[in-house]
Amino acid sequence: MEIDYERAGEKKRELVTMAEKAVLDYWQSYGSQQNSTDAKAVAAEIIEKYAHISAPEKEDLGRMEFILLNQGGRRGARSIKPGNVQLNMQKLLVALAGGVLTVAGAISSPWTIPFAALLVWDRVWSAMGVEITERDAAVLWTLWKHRDANNHVSEDGLLSAVNVELVTNGRSGISQVELDETLQLLTKISCIERAISITGKWWLKEWVTITYK
User: Per-residue pLDDT tens for 114-167?
Assistant: First the structure.
């Protein structure tokens, strides 16, 4: 069966467009003067660092028809292998923290990449279409900055850590209620979950895989 590399390219362009819109929306929300060219550069690098896209198989209609007519009355055909998109939150945010990402404007604008990554995660994987805010991106970024070797983060001191991140970047602090709301949203879209065997800790999901045709 022939591999559909063209479809994989389309999927990659879809992801870049999605990330580009997220970046532009975020920059515009706080008055950044950076333009769509900058946003596209950021989006392209986000997808390069964040997503691995494998191509699906092409659907050969002629071959499928032959198989169906040649089954002696037993309907059935070879299934078409879908493509995969692997979204790796840890890889992206570790690259950002380590200064590996080189996109213009992304580092000077607080939480640009966490915001875009979070929106792509929601739109592509959970498809719940929830409203992602800068606060959500700041909390997610703080969680990843304070994780341990097993991607666990303690609830103790989390509010203080988030507020240090916000205030350092010229934003107002948040309350415990607001933090809890964001943690609920991140749980809803399956970015994080309660640690099963450890009380009082969150577990950060490193990656997720979706299929497409």
Answer: 998 898 888 887 777 788 999 999 999 999 999 999 999 999 999 999 999 999
Place of tokens 């870049």: 16
Residues near 156 by beta carbon (within 8 Å), at least 6 away in sequence: 200
Closest CA to 1 of 76, 52, 61, 74: 61
- Which H, E and C letters describe the chain, residue by residue? CCECHHHHHHHHHHHHHHHHHHHHHHHHHCCCCCCHHHHHHHHHHHHHHHEEEECCECCCHHHHHHHHHCCCCCCCCCCCCCEEEEEEHHHHHHHHHCCCCCCCCCCCCCCHHHHHHHHHHHHHHHCCCCCCCHHHHHHHHHHHHCCCCCCEEECCCHHHHHHHHHHHCCCCCCCHHHHHHHHHHHHHCCCEEECCCCCCEEEECCEEEEEEC
Query: pLDDT tens-digit profile of 24-78?
Result: 888 888 877 778 888 898 899 889 888 999 999 987 655 544 444 444 444 445 5
| Residue 108 C-alpha from the chain's centroid | 20
Distance (Å, whole) CA 133 – CA 114: 11
